[in-house]
Amino acid sequence: MIDLDPWGWAALGGAALTIGVSKTALPGGSILAIALFAAVLPARTSTAAMLLLLMVGDVFALIAYRRHAHWPTLLRLAPAVVAGLLVGFAFLAFAGDGVVRRAIGVILLLMIGVTLWRRRRASRTDAVAPASGGLVLAGAYGTLGGFTTMVANAGGPVMSMYFLATRTPVQVFLGTSAWFFAIINVIKVPFLAGIGLFTGPVLLTDAILAPLVVIGALAGLRLARRLNQRVFDRIVIALTVAGAVYLLL
């Protein structure tokens, strides 16, 4: 397995729990896991290791919300997302670890900015234009979402903002997101495997961490209606900013 000190394992364990909770209760929480993985592991390795754990969380998200997906939205996003995935794959294939590491830091800061801007807009009654769901909107968000999810598994805030911009109802938001990321994460596997990122140590490390994702997902299902999301989100944002700055430096 990957050779880490106790603090490294503690960070990855916390990240695995966060992945599970974010999939079933606190969308956006996975951005903290991205920062922790990228801070502990080499940048490209962190992308591959986290992907497999996200797929474990996807199973629970689908169990909880699979019936609420809006398939026309997924089909509208598909072409742009594929284009973004291909650009992100080319970036991963040719960029060195140092470049990818800094890119993840920049992406994290960008995603935090996107998330804060989205919430500010949502707090204003006239913030969001009528749901158009047009091809231009889908193209812009889909391309950026595909790129960020391939490079750093960080497409969540981008797609959340798209669903907000189209005034997607909450249950449809959760169901469509669950299917979107479940499908995209499966598509990403052969790309990352093709550039040799799924090594034996990565797979063994994920096997050790996967039960923590399951625990986090089950806890998220139980605690979804009890947690103070505003406080949690502030903690996630603060820690993620610290993680992103660390990666940049």
UniProtKB/TrEMBL annotation:
Membrane topology, record value: Multi-pass membrane protein
Subcellular location: Cell membrane
Transmembrane segments: 12-41, 47-65, 77-94, 100-117, 169-187, 193-219, 231-248
Main location: membrane
Keywords annotated in UniProt: Cell membrane, Membrane, Transmembrane, Transmembrane helix, Transport
UniProt keyword Signal, yes or no: no
Xref: Pfam families: TauE
InterPro entries: TM_pro_TauE-like (IPR002781), TSUP (IPR052017)
Family (UniProt): Belongs to the 4-toluene sulfonate uptake permease (TSUP) (TC 2.A.102) family.
Protein name: Probable membrane transporter protein
Species this protein is from: Microbacterium algeriense
